[in-house]
Amino acid sequence: MQFETTIGESVFDILLNPEKSDATVNEHPVDFEILQNDETQLLFRSGHRLYKVNNMTVDGGSVECTVNGKWIQADLKDEQQQLLERMGFKAFAEKSVGELQAPMPGKILELMISEGDEVELGDPVAILEAMKMENELKAPCSGTISSVSVTTGTNVEKNQLLLEIEPRG
Question: Is residue 50 a contact partner of residue 67, using CB atoms and an 8 Å limit?
Fold first, then answer.
């Protein structure tokens, strides 16, 4: 099975062979052993390191979980999705282009924008504290901030609307 995984700004090409308990990550061989795989957690060893994966949620091609207590959000594309993208098609429906929703429950520590501001794709717009970590949220498109649904100090739920951007062009 072949995947492209994006975590933050890093992209990983993964070739996974679970029957042989090995994988290739960006052309580097990786051996692993799955010790526990149930509804509550995945426990595996790679080399001398032990990894505990908990709190996993899957939404389309987006996976969120904790790995040894650290919150991870990854976007996964299988071989078919990669092929469709190379051909110019999107593999599954995108969320509304101009809406930014909370990727996880947390507290808004800082808003870097206000209504009427111009933003570019990827500009930082807010800081969300979740699980004692600060997460920089970025503009999902270029355009004008048309509405801001939260204020600094607001506690938010996963997928709660934070702001809307009127896309440019």
Answer: no
User: Domains in the chain, start-ordered, CATH in brackets?
Assistant: 2-86 (3.30.700.30), 99-167 (2.40.50.100)
DSSP-assigned letter for residue 33: E
Q: Give the bridge partners for 89, in sequence order.
A: none
The answer to whether 146 touches 164, Cβ cutoff 8 Å, is: yes
Predicted pLDDT at 115: 96
Sheet of strand 49-59, all strands in order from the earlier edge strand to the far edge: 28-31, 22-25, 10-17, 2-7, 70-78, 62-67, 49-59, 41-46, 33-37
pLDDT of 103 over the 70 cut: yes
Mean pLDDT of the chain: 87
Q: What angle do CA 100, 106, 109 make, to 5 degrees?
A: 80
